[in-house]
Structure formats: structure tokens, C-alpha cells
Specification:
Layout: E1 3-6, E2 19-26, H1 32-48, E3 52-55, H2 62-71, E4 73-76, E5 90-93, H3 101-108, E6 112-115, H4 119-133, E7 137-141, H5 147-153, E8 161-164, H6 167-172, E9 181-185, H7 191-204, H8 218-231, E10 236-240, H9 246-258, E11 263-266, H10 274-277, E12 282-287, H11 293-306, E13 308-315, H12 336-342
Parallel strand pairs: 2-12, 2-13, 3-4, 3-5, 5-6, 7-8, 7-9, 10-11, 10-12
Antiparallel strand pairs: 1-13
Helix pairs in contact: 4-5, 8-9
Bound molecules: iron/sulfur cluster (SF4).
Length: about 350
């Protein structure tokens, strides 16, 4: 059950602006995996100096990526983009995980790499490998082209994994042995849609083996749950996040299904389409797992300029997860300003 309370600094003023209640989801924004990945880049920069290379956006958020670029991180899509004269520089793999071929390639090139794959993604990798080791063909429920899906598929030999994106894929799949199948999922999927696909798979393949633990992560589940409760009857629901952020896009869908009249993804306050919003009195607000809190504040402030805002915090879960960085970086101290950046508040 949700507990709603008013933020002490959000008492309504007596201005002539129209009243607006913002239902602010909690939990929202950075998860433990994103926090850890950003920490790894910041710590590597402090320990080894700039440049530190990062393969793929460390997390799917421009604000974070640009902040790290300002500190000396250089983003590349593939390892062969790292110039020969910088081969002694560290390279960080993103939170989404990488196929096995990537660390192998890094070793072949004598690169020093730090793997910022979220431990919960690594857990899915292990579960997929376990299915395969036990002789099962692996069904990966996920979205084609997403780096996490590429990374998970790349843990297994070619031909031993099939991607399932939708019900049509379930219907079209023809296994070699229908009694030797196991599934895992991307960590950031819609809880509801995934349950539907698993049901459809089980109808066709009753002996389908589930992974030892749920693949959809705690952060995805908690953020969707918070949006589900908060979106009911909202005139508008905004999710702070990037278009390539899977978990953020799912939150927009969840808000729509839960009953928000309009639901939008925005990266910054400047993207709010004020002319389309019209007269609203209730706004739902959340942020994807890779979106920093400072953008949430920016959006609340943008509404304050136009409305007499009251913020109601909608608390649906308390998160205490914390993923430590690798031992190679534990001897580096973060200053309070580093911590503020890592936490997404600056
Ligand atoms: S969304 Fe989940 S799997 Fe992805 S980085 Fe965060 S905790 Fe890890």
C-alpha cells in the first residue's frame, strides 16, 4: 500500500497560478547498477587520470555521459576506436554487459579493462549459461538490438539461444527438442508483458525451465509498481529518461495502461511540450533507472514557474541495494562533489 506525504518545502503559495499536484514516484531514478557504473568511471579517472575510455554509453543518459566527458571520459562504440598510443589507458565496459568476445578482444589487444556490467545482468548471463550447460536451448525474452540483449546472447555459442520479442516469435519458434528449453529475460522489460510471453511459451512448451531467480531486476519492478499506483487518473505523466533507455520507455507504457490521460518521455525540461499539455491539475512524475535526480528537480521547477505546485511523494518501496565497485578501485576516495555527481544530484 502506498504512503503519501507532502514534502515540507512544497507548501502551496498564494500565487494566481493554477494549482497542480505533482505525484512524485518513489523509488525513481538511479538504481544500484547505474550508481556503480558511474562510480567506476569516476574512480578510474581519479586513479588513472584522463582519458579513460568507455565502451558504449556507460548508462543511457546524455546528461551523465556529457558530465563524464567533461571529467575526461572518452566514449567509443568498439575497442578498435581506441588509438594505438592509448592502449595503456583503462577502458570501462558499460552497465548493460558485453558479449564474451569483448573482454577476449580486449585481452588480445593488451587493453586494461574494467567491467561495469551490473551484477544483476551478470546474474542473467550465468543463468543463461547454466541452461545451456544443462543441455537446454535458451530462449531470451528481450528487445533486439539492445546492448543488454547483445551481451546476453554473446555469452552463449551461436545457435544455442533464440530471441523472443513478442507473441509472433513464440508462435514461430520451432525447437529441436521441446523438452529441453530454458528461458531468461532482459532485466528492464515490462513485468506484465513478460508474464504474458512466459505464459504463451508455457502453453506451447509445458516443460520450459525458468531461471533460478527472476531476471527482471528489483529496480525495474519497483519503478513500474510506483508508476502503476501514481498514474491512475493523472492528467499527464512524465518519465524522465532517454529514448534508448529500455526501462524508461517501459515506464511510459505502464503509465498509459494504468490510466494516465497522456504519458511522455522527456530528457530535459526543455522537451516538455507546454502547448500540448493544456489545463492539467494532476501530474505524475518518475524517472528511469539511468536518469539523474537533478533533471527531476529541473522539471519540478519548470512546472513551478507555470503552476502553483504541491508535491506529493508516492512511496511504494524502499530500496537499500548497493553494489560495491571492483577491488582495483576501492583504494580511491570520492569527495562530496564526486558523490553528488555519482548520485545524480549535480
Ligand atoms: S536497471 Fe536493474 S539491471 Fe539495469 S543497471 Fe539498474 S539494477 Fe542493474
Amino acid at each position: 500500500m502506498s504512503v503519501r506525504k507532502r514534502r515540507p518545502d512544497d507548501m502551496p503559495d498564494n500565487s494566481s497560478k493554477p494549482p497542480l499536484t505533482i505525484r512524485l514516484c518513489q523509488p525513481r531514478g538511479f538504481c544500484a547498477g547505474v550508481d556503480r557504473a558511474i562510480q567506476i568511471v569516476v574512480l578510474a579517472l581519479k586513479k588513472y587520470g584522463a582519458p579513460v575510455y568507455v565502451r558504449h554509453e556507460i548508462v543511457h543518459n546524455r546528461y551523465v555521459v556529457e558530465g563524464l566527458q567533461n571529467l575526461g571520459a572518452v566514449f567509443v562504440e568498439e575497442l578498435d576506436e581506441i588509438p594505438d598510443e592509448h592502449h595503456e589507458r583503462p577502458v570501462v565496459f558499460s552497465a548493460h554487459g558485453v558479449p564474451k568476445s569483448v573482454p577476449a578482444d580486449a585481452q588480445a589487444r593488451n587493453l586494461f579493462y574494467l567491467d561495469a556490467t551490473c551484477p544483476l545482468v551478470s546474474k542473467v548471463h550465468k543463468q543463461a549459461m547454466r541452461h545451456q550447460r544443462l543441455g537446454r536451448h535458451v530462449l531470451l525474452i528481450g528487445h533486439a538490438g539492445h546492448p543488454e540483449v547483445i551481451g546476453t546472447m554473446g555469452q552463449l555459442p551461436e545457435g544455442s539461444v533464440t530471441l523472443i520479442e513478442n507473441e509472433a516469435d513464440v508462435a514461430a519458434f520451432v525447437p529441436e527438442d521441446a523438452d529441453a528449453l530454458g528461458f531468461v529475460t532482459q532485466t528492464t522489460l515490462s513485468v506484465e508483458d513478460t508474464a504474458g510471453l512466459i505464459r504463451a511459451l508455457r502453453q506451447r512448451f509445458p516443460t520450459l525451465t525458468a531461471p533460478a531467480a527472476e531476471s527482471i531486476c528489483y529496480a525495474t519492478t519497483n519503478r513500474q509498481e510506483a508508476v502503476k499506483e501514481t498514474a491512475v487518473g493523472a492528467d499527464l505523466f512524465l518519465v524522465v529518461g532517454a529514448p534508448n533507455s529500455s526501462n524508461s520507455r517501459r515506464l511510459v507504457e505502464v503509465a498509459e495502461r494504468a490510466g494516465a490521460k497522456m504519458s511522455l518521455l522527456v530528457q530535459r525540461a526543455s522537451e516538455i511540450p507546454w502547448q500540448n499539455i493544456g489545463a492539467i491539475s494532476t501530474l505524475g512524475l518518475s524517472a528511469g533507472a539511468s536518469a539523474p535526480e537533478i533533471i527531476v528537480d529541473e522539471i519540478v521547477n519548470a512546472f513551478r514557474e507555470r503552476f502553483d505546485v504541491r508535491v506529493d511523494l508516492a512511496v511504494t518501496a524502499t530500496e537499500t541495494e548497493n553494489f560495491p565497485v571492483m577491488s582495483a578501485l576501492r583504494d580511491v576516495e570520492l569527495t562530496p562533489s564526486d558523490m553528488a555527481f555519482v548520485n545524480g544530484t549535480v
